[in-house]
Design a protein that fits this description.
five-stranded antiparallel beta sheet, 26 strands, 15-stranded antiparallel beta sheet, disordered N terminus, C8orf32 fold
């Protein structure tokens, strides 16, 4: 089995688990003071909280969160979020460590003043050090062996209440809305928290009243459901049916299972797909359960037909683009969204642009240029689980990684060549070493060459074959709850 499919499973999960870990907080409850924000006044466990993070019942990480007044000061609040993810991918261990520290004004609606974000392990090492003012946010990005980069961002509307909307909502007994400056892509996202009904549950053998809180962040677009006691302890929270965080003592939270994400997250098929799916054109039809209606979107590659309340038929088709006559640079049908440079894509990076020019040369035909990019990435990059990177320039330097690195570099090179491009998240057909036919979580690219067309730089497919089932784009965590829920009932 190619190495590219495994880390996609863990990467889908860990991006979402970071969101879960950052969502909660913990600090010492103090006496009511009208000069202090409700986020400080809300009751909660002293000294922060540890959580075990579970994927499909297997512990794959832990988180720690603390929020308190800065020692020696009554006018500033410090929020700390620490996250560790660890899983086996193939024959290697993937570990991701993500730490955030944010400082806010302690008064009601106090501004974000600064943030430090540290990433280590899978995905590469880096630090963001940010200072926020009313005029904007300046972030210094530090990476080993590379010069510091300075990012000047617009002002963020994030306030101290956004550091823990859940407890603020319970304290106020009403909904709370705000904004979060994301610690991975440095973009602002709306966050809304609502209250659900209270319920009685057994917690450590005692029946306790719990307050249900539901937070929706527009980046992940999946409701996070949490349960708080009257004393402010977060008992558990979950994102979909397969990702859950459970309050645990530190020693318990840090005891992790050794989880092999291949077998844990794949979608096993009732029989192999026909060999003809490797041809172009080709078609295959699957009958599915566990696929919510929001994912059932007809496209040029996928056609859905509802069979019953929980059954749907999808026909996957792969064919050459028919209108691929665009000349570079190509106008983006999304208004420029898929030509942008970003923290991850870096299509304006000088090395990325120089490499793209060497690959594409003077060829003005957008589709031929896209094929050249995908073929170059596929034939020059080494497939390696232990060399993950979250930024295109890092991938270019190391020239190895899994499907996410192949797709990220291809996307950046395509955009640098004047071709609108995006990453596609979904499933790909493989038969594993155990000879079990299955769909594995995977990532590839889609380019606009006069029409959209999908290409796979991991498997060197200038037309992604009919074994590719697209479910989302741009590493969006929205698809993660499908893990463990999506089933293939028939292959037709």
């Amino acid at each position: 089995m190619p190495l590219s499919t495994a880390t996609r499973n863990s990467r889908s999960a860990h991006g979402l688990l970071i969101a879960l870990a950052v969502w909660i907080g913990g600090h010492t409850a103090i006496a009511s003071d009208a000069a202090l924000s409700d986020v400080v006044r809300a009751p909660r466990p002293k000294g922060g909280e540890y959580f075990g993070l579970y994927l499909l019942g297997k512990k794959v990480g832990f988180a720690f969160n603390d929020l308190a007044l800065v020692p020696g000061r009554n006018d500033q609040v410090r929020a700390v979020s620490n996250f560790v993810f660890r899983a086996s991918v193939g024959n290697k261990i993937a570990e991701r460590i993500h730490n955030e520290t944010r400082i806010y004004e302690a008064k009601p609606k106090g501004r974000l003043l600064s943030l430090v974000v540290e990433d280590r392990g899978d995905g590469g090492n880096q630090t963001f050090e940010g200072t926020a003012t009313a005029e904007g946010v300046q972030v210094v990005q530090k990476r080993p062996g590379q010069p510091d980069q300075v990012h000047k961002l617009p002002p963020t509307p994030e306030t101290v209440e956004d550091a823990d909307q859940a407890r603020v909502a319970v304290l106020r007994n009403t909904s709370v809305s705000g904004t979060i400056l994301d610690g991975q892509d440095l973009q602002n996202y709306r966050a809304d928290t609502t209250l659900g009904p209270t319920e009685l549950r057994l917690v450590r053998g005692v029946k306790v009243r719990l307050h249900k809180v539901v937070t929706l962040v527009q980046k992940e677009k999946i409701p996070i459901e949490g349960f708080l006691t009257d004393a402010g302890e977060m008992v558990e929270f979950s994102l979909g049916p397969n990702l859950k965080a459970v309050s645990e003592p530190e020693s318990v939270a840090k005891r992790l299972d050794l989880v092999e994400v291949f077998a844990l997250t794949r979608v096993v098929l009732p029989k192999p797909l026909p060999a003809t799916i490797r041809q172009t054109p080709s078609t295959v039809t699957l009958v599915l359960s566990g696929l919510p209606e929001r994912f059932q979107k007809n496209t040029y590659r996928e056609k859905f037909k509802k069979i019953s309340e929980d059954k749907v038929e999808v026909t996957l088709t792969a064919s050459e683009p028919k209108l691929a006559k665009a000349v570079r640079p190509v106008a983006d049908p999304a208004g420029g969204e898929y030509l942008k440079s970003s923290i991850a894509v870096e299509s304006e990076n000088s090395e990325i642009r120089e490499r793209a020019a060497l690959i594409v040369g003077s060829d003005k035909d957008a589709y031929r240029a896209a094929q050249k990019v995908v073929t170059w990435v596929a034939t020059n990059m080494k497939k390696d689980y232990g060399s993950s990177a979250d930024r295109a320039s890092d991938v270019l330097h190391q020239m190895k990684g899994d499907c996410t690195e192949h797709s990220l570099l291809a996307e950046a090179l395509l955009r640098a060549s004047g071709i609108p491009a995006k990453r596609v998240d979904g499933l790909v057909y493989m038969v594993g070493d155990d000879q079990i036919p299955a769909l594995y979580w995977h990532e590839w690219v889609e380019a606009y060459v006069g029409e959209w067309t999908q290409l796979d730089p991991t498997f060197n497919e200038i037309v992604a074959d009919a074994g590719h089932f697209a479910l989302g784009e741009e590493s969006n965590a929205e698809i993660t709850p499908l893990i463990g829920q999506l089933k293939v009932l028939e292959v037709r």
